[in-house]
Amino acid sequence: MFLRNAWYVAAWDREVTAERPFARVLLNEPVVLYRTRAGKVVALEDRCCHRHFPLHEGSIVADLIECGYHGFTYDATGKCVRVPGQDSVPPAARVRSYPVVERYRWVWVWMGEPAAADPAKICDFHWLDHPAWGAKGAVLHVKANYELIIENLLDLTHLAFLHRSTIGNAATADQAQVRAQRTETDVTVTRWMVDTPPPPTYVKAGGFTGNIDRWQFINFMPPAFVRLDVGACAAGVGARRLKTGPFAAEGTMPGGIEMRNLNAITPETERSTHYFWAQAHNFMVDDPKMTELVFEQVKTAFDQDVTAIEAQQRNIDRDPVAPRVDVNGDAGQIHAIRLLRRRIAEEREAAGRLVA
Q1: What is the DSSP string of 329-352?
Q2: Which percentage of the chain shows pLDDT scores above 70?
Q3: Tens digits of per-residue pLDDT, 305-320?
């Protein structure tokens, strides 16, 4: 199940060029992206209207895309402007075009009704390109349903077991004070680990030698965006007084470190996902070695997540109706999936009324 009238991340800006078409399947729809000579990104249906050959197997000619099978050529609106061997172009010769916005180093594509595409609805990920933050990111291809990734990010008790070598330790499961809050538009999970030992990544990045007060604010917004405000200070400095909520008090933690884990989760199919993520930090921003350190530490953890999530999907495929047991720590992910599915149901109901 997918929410159609929404912005999704289709690519990192560096992935789309004017030299050759770039293909990605989004929500079961084949999409081809390319840049014009002016640098504008175009997104079209990746299927020639003539014999359904993938357009990404063709070429970019000036600001047009030419099918590599019979030479049908399309402009940025999806209209066919040339059919080799004849002067006229059939009026029905066109492919779907998608609204596109470049923001925060990502290429965003609107997968629903074009008239409803409002750039103001794009989720805020300004930490990716803000000068006060250093950031590095990547994309993972995960052979699993996108809901499993959302669940993974909203329940961080698994850090104590899956990520002991980097961002987790026993305190993340046994000593966390957790609260889940839901609204009509988002879900936020607040986790505090007070006066606890720092995990390995925090020792390397923050140089902590004693206990820390550590926070994790996890915010989910449909269809599939998860932003984490994470960090720590030396125990007793006053982090809980300064940190009044997610993304608050940026840069004011004395002797502390603050990071943002940024996740845009784009379904490819019901069983596969394009997982765009980045790690940002606001300390030692001018030191590329620190940016690389925090990126690699989190990448190690995320590679472990992918292995776990794909294993989950294989078991689900073997027995899709096997029951699951929920516990207190699952509250955030339960709220998030319910919110997502409610939005999908409302969209389908509205579409049904229009058809009727």
Answers
A1: GGHHHHHHHHHHHHHHHHHHHHHH
A2: 98
A3: 999 999 999 999 999 9
Question: pTM here?
Answer: 0.94
Q: What are phi and psi of 349, to 5 degrees?
A: -65, -45
- Looking at 25-39, 57-71, 175-189, which range is the least confident one? 175-189
Angle at which helix 146-154 crosses helix 331-355, to 10 degrees, equals 140
Region of residue 85 (left: phi > 0; alpha: psi -120 to 50; beta: else): left
| CATH 3.90.380.10, the chain: domain bounds | 126-341
| Domain 7-121 superfamily per CATH | Rieske [2Fe-2S] iron-sulphur domain (2.102.10.10)
- What pLDDT digit, counting tens, does each position of 42-100 carry? 999 999 999 999 999 999 999 999 999 999 999 999 999 999 999 999 999 999 999 99
Domain with CATH 2.102.10.10 in the chain: 7-121
Spatial strand order in the sheet of 80-82: 59-61, 64-66, 73-74, 80-82
The gap from C-alpha 114 to its chain's centroid, in whole angstroms, comes to: 21
CATH of region 126-341, choose from 3.10.490.10, 3.30.70.270, 3.30.300.180, 3.90.380.10: 3.90.380.10
- Strands across the sheet containing 177-182: 134-142, 272-281, 257-269, 225-234, 212-221, 187-196, 177-182
Q: Residue 48, class by beta-carbon neighbours within 10 Å (0-12 exposed, 13-18 middle, 19+ buried)? A: buried
Contact 137, 22 (CB under 8 A): no
